[in-house]
Design brief:
The chain is an all-alpha fold and 116 residues long. It has a domain at 1-19 and 52-78. 57% of the residues lie in helices and 0% in strands. It has helices spanning 2-25, 31-36, 50-77, 87-94. The protein is elongated.
């Protein structure tokens, strides 16, 4: 189970980083208007016609992958152990039992002074 969660978390992180990079590479809708009036260049990395389709579709695929990984991590994070109970009850069950005994007699004042 831990292996599956690790793989899903790794895929989610890679898709998030790739999606951030693709979003930063894309130009806004107003960039073509500015290029038409001579205030900028209209060249892009993948050419003038194919850049919007390729980058938009790749971003949509990565966003879908990120969303599916997020849902899978939420599902695996909410799985309850078969014994039921809370985390604190599980910790109390694994903690060593402390034997109840009579309190010790208080030490004298000389025994409380640390020796160098």
């Amino acid at each position: 189970m831990s292996y599956v969660v690790t793989v899903i978390l790794t895929v989610q992180m890679i898709s998030a980083i790739a999606m951030i990079g693709l979003i930063l590479v894309q130009h806004g809708k107003g960039a073509d208007m500015g290029a038409a009036f001579g205030s900028g260049s209209s060249g892009s990395l993948f050419g003038a016609s194919g850049s919007a389709n390729f980058l938009s579709r790749t971003t949509a695929v990565l966003a879908t992958l990120f969303f599916v990984c997020t849902l899978a991590l939420a599902y695996f994070g909410n799985l309850r152990p078969s014994s039921g109970g809370s985390v604190l009850e599980g910790a109390a069950a694994t903690a060593p039992a402390v034997a109840a005994s009579a309190p010790a007699a208080p030490a004298s004042g000389a025994a409380q002074i640390p020796a160098n």
